[in-house]
Amino acid sequence: MKSENGRDDAKRRAGESAAELIEDGMVIGLGTGSTAAHAIQAIGRAVSEGMDVYGIPTSFQSRALAREVGIPLVTLDDALPDIAIDGADQVADGALVKGGGGAHAREKVVDAHAARFICVVDETKLADVLNHPIPLEVLPSAVSAVEDSLRERGGEPTLRAAERKDGPVITDNGNPVLDCDFGTIEDPDVLAASLSVIPGIVEHGIFAAMADEIHAGFSDRVDIRSV
Ligand code: 5RP
């Protein structure tokens, strides 16, 4: 098992590798999570050295970090991203599971509208086939009904509980999150399509055929793969 420090180094390598793609004048989708945070910090350093870029945050967390490191912010109303840099909970054959931070609804909007989407992960996220539970942001009034629909599709949903207080995790959009275990996901496109039609699901965490490049950090290198 890798140490947490070693794993964070691999995340930093991946995040900084993606940040090297940033050029003057770009609008950048700023992902959520600890790996994307390394990219945001690297972009902040570039801004402090005079680079002229703008960020579109995907969460309260990435907005706060971007402000802290001095990245000027805009919204999707102002411009679409030239590039988005975002993490993932699992990657297999170019398909991603996202939403470990419950930010996947906004992440999907920003990442999907970027001209280029770079996914940054450490090596522990790489898999041969997706089998990570799928995060689902759900309207509060629809939780039970959505749970039934997920079970009909062979899933085992669990309401994500808040760590530091009683009750569920609530997203930036004010909704709870279900994590649904589907076991091995042979065809992410098919599962994504079947989740997209369940009323009450605001967004699911399958990002199939969205990433353009995967930057995977290891202890001694970054592997960059086009997908
Ligand atoms: C948040 C996400 C994150 O990108 C994902 O959970 C990975 O996080 P980390 O880089 O901290 O492992 O999808 O909704």
UniProtKB/TrEMBL annotation:
SUPFAM superfamilies: D-ribose-5-phosphate isomerase (RpiA), lid domain, NagB/RpiA/CoA transferase-like. Pfam families: Rib_5-P_isom_A (PF06026). Keywords: Isomerase. It catalyses: aldehydo-D-ribose 5-phosphate = D-ribulose 5-phosphate. It is an enzyme of class 5 (isomerase). Pathway: Carbohydrate degradation; pentose phosphate pathway; D-ribose 5-phosphate from D-ribulose 5-phosphate (non-oxidative stage): step 1/1. GO terms for biological process: pentose-phosphate shunt, non-oxidative branch. It comes from the Archaea. Substrate binds at residues 32-35, 86-89, 98-101, 125. The keyword Phosphoprotein does not apply. Gene3D superfamilies: 3.30.70.260, 3.40.50.1360. The keyword Ubl conjugation does not apply. The active site is at residue 107. GO terms for molecular function: ribose-5-phosphate isomerase activity. Its EC number is 5.3.1.6. Homodimer. Homotetramer. Belongs to the ribose 5-phosphate isomerase family. Catalyzes the reversible conversion of ribose-5-phosphate to ribulose 5-phosphate. This is Ribose-5-phosphate isomerase A. It comes from Halocatena marina.
